[in-house]
Amino acid sequence: MDGQLLKMIEEGLVEKILLESKNPHDPVIVKNIPDGWKCIGTGNYAAVFSHATCPGLAVKVIRENTEDLKKEAKVYKQLGDHPAYSKCFYHGPNYLVLKKLKGITLYDAIAKGIRIPASVIGDINEALLFARKSGLNPYDVHAKNVMMKDGRGYVVDVSDFYKEGKDEKWDDFVKAYQKIYLKTLYKHPVKIPYKVLNFIRHAYRFYKNLKHKRSQKRKHASNLSAYHRQN
Ligand SMILES: Nc1ncnc2c1ncn2[C@@H]1O[C@H](COP(=O)(O)OP(=O)(O)OP(=O)(O)O)[C@@H](O)[C@H]1O
Ligand SMILES: [Mg+2]
Which domain of life is it from (predicted)? Predict the structure, then answer.
């Protein structure tokens, strides 16, 4: 990457901004955004910025220096070129320079009452299948991590695709899209307040944790009774 541009990113942005976190399950809070830079999104670990002079780029800055960033860069390498994904051009100690995706997240689309067409869901399903074929495990795919633009779907956050295990967020979203969304908001789009969406997000996490704990308890009880039967 161009040295001047890197200097502008490192000295002009990364060294100046402050990222705070009040709750690990809520997006980071960004302070001290330097002139010329705009925050285009926040997640629980990172904030993403763009600059008017390089509109095709998005700079993702993470809260802490972690090994995870290296893994995210590696995921992009493994994905290669695919129209539904961004690309990683460079990775620094606590930031990545990515291709900026256009459009809005599905979370924002629901909040703003913008209709989500089925083609978007189809594109994302296809992109996740592509990731699996590339040896990755689509993980943590939720409404803030996918975007749409002109009826096409995109996956904007691949940071957890190296993880193992099954993550059901996207499957659950698709089920809710088919069973509820298509019959309601798709037909009559209305704005849903962020407070309501945030409540649903937290309630969903609570329900999933409870379900997981119950299944662990059941597994433990059945292991214990098998042990007693053998001894
Ligand atoms: N390449 C990109 N182009 C445009 N917008 C982006 C890009 N990458 C991230 N964003 C925006 O920034 C937000 C936060 O980025 P991202 O999801 O990568 O952060 P994160 O902290 O890893 O998220 P999570 O909490 O899901 O782990 C996204 O929801 C999206 O709105
Ligand atoms: Mg994210």
Answer: Bacteria
> What confidence tens digit (pLDDT) does each residue in 52-109 have?
999 999 999 998 877 899 999 999 999 999 999 999 999 999 999 999 999 999 999 9
Give residue 160's pLDDT: 96
Q: Ligand 1, closest atom to CA 108?
A: 31
Domains identified in the chain and CATH numbers: 3-99 (3.30.200), 104-183 (1.10.510.10)
Return the half-sphere exposure (C-beta side, CA atoms, 13 A cut-off) of residue 73.
Answer: 18
| Of 106, 148, 156, the residue nearest 128 (C-alpha) | 156
Separation of 96 CA from ligand 2 center, angstroms?
14
**CB distance 107 to ligand 1 below 6 Å:** no
Task: Name beta bridge partners: 41.
Answer: 48
Tokens of 158: 């691949």
Ligand 1 proximity of 50 Cβ (cutoff 6 Å): no
Ligand 1 center to 95 CA (angstroms): 12
Closest to 84 (Cα-Cα) out of 9, 180, 137, 156:
156
